[in-house]
Amino acid sequence: MTAHIIDGKGFAETLRNRIADHVAGLKREHGLTPGLAVIIVGHDPASQVYVRNKARQTEEVGMNSFKYELPADTPEAALLSLIDELNNRQDVHGILCQMPVPAHIDPVTVINAVAPAKDVDMFHPVNAGKLMTGQVGPVSCTPLGCLMLLRDYHGELTGKSAVVIGRSNLVGKPMAQLLLKDNCTVTMAHSKTVDLPGVVRQADIVVAAVGRAKMVKGDWIKPGATVLDVGINRIPAPEKGEGKTRLVGDVDFEAAKEVAGAITPVPGGVGPMTIACLLANTVTTCCLINGLTPPGDLTA
Ligand code: NAP
Prior knowledge:
Elements: E1 4-5, H1 8-30, E2 35-41, H2 45-60, E3 64-70, H3 76-87, E4 94-97, H4 107-113, H5 125-132, H6 141-154, E5 161-165, H7 172-181, E6 185-189, H8 196-200, E7 205-208, E8 226-229, E9 233-236, E10 245-248, H9 253-256, E11 262-263, H10 271-289
Parallel strand pairs: 1-11, 2-3, 2-4, 5-6, 5-7, 7-8, 8-11
Antiparallel strand pairs: 9-10
Helix pairs in contact: 1-10, 2-10, 6-7, 6-10
Bound molecules: NADP nicotinamide-adenine-dinucleotide phosphate.
């Protein structure tokens, strides 16, 4: 059996079109243009690419994009002062500070400085708590993207056994909460899990968010299971030329696709959903800030 390949890139494009429609509706009916502010401190090349893509896609769906590129030696106080200014601006509905920040800046202080109402990454403990207690709010972008792909493929997730590998605040923990909310029976696995292959073999749904190239082997997968590969790992690709690299996920895709029922590729799976969900979250926060009900098809 060869698995159905879940087209995250195509789904993200459809989602961005839906977001553009909602943005047009907000402008037309309420005179509102959602605005997303992205801050980057320092010159990490990978982060620069992410931030450029975010800004471009924000504008493409008709939202306002505000980009702040700060030098690597920016004092923490100056960054906090910018965040405070953005917290108070009426034309900014989402604030994202690209991680990692330079070592002299405490990431937790930065995360806690963003107003929870504008925290489109769902890093703030208030929003993590809202997700935990089932309240409406923005949901961390990557897990939201995974959930949308799962709902689209399965329709209904109730009763499914799900294993999430990785327990980061960014991906693993919110992913597990979302699956629980959709009535899955959820197991969270991590680096201390005993017999990880055996645990994964029980799962109808596997979400791998580890950061280790091809760690999840084909014979770990239950036949017919759905596999979402969040991992982004760069490995040498001598076949492309000397010093060249390529991206792979946390799952051994070639082997897993022979066993799984459905699987996301890397690249082109979960990755494109993350930015699309960031835009979706900005529409959601714009609505909530202005006392409007967020569109039901953009939230969890
Ligand atoms: P992270 O904060 O480093 O967390 C990694 C998690 O994996 C930890 O919980 C760790 O367990 C667990 N882990 C490490 N080694 C393991 C092992 N041998 N067996 C089982 N679990 C193990 O990473 P993250 O931020 O969640 O990101 C994970 C991956 O997703 C990375 O490749 C990242 O680049 C990627 N990512 C992709 C997107 C996207 O848009 N596609 C978005 C975010 C992240 P412990 O807690 O026990 O240490």
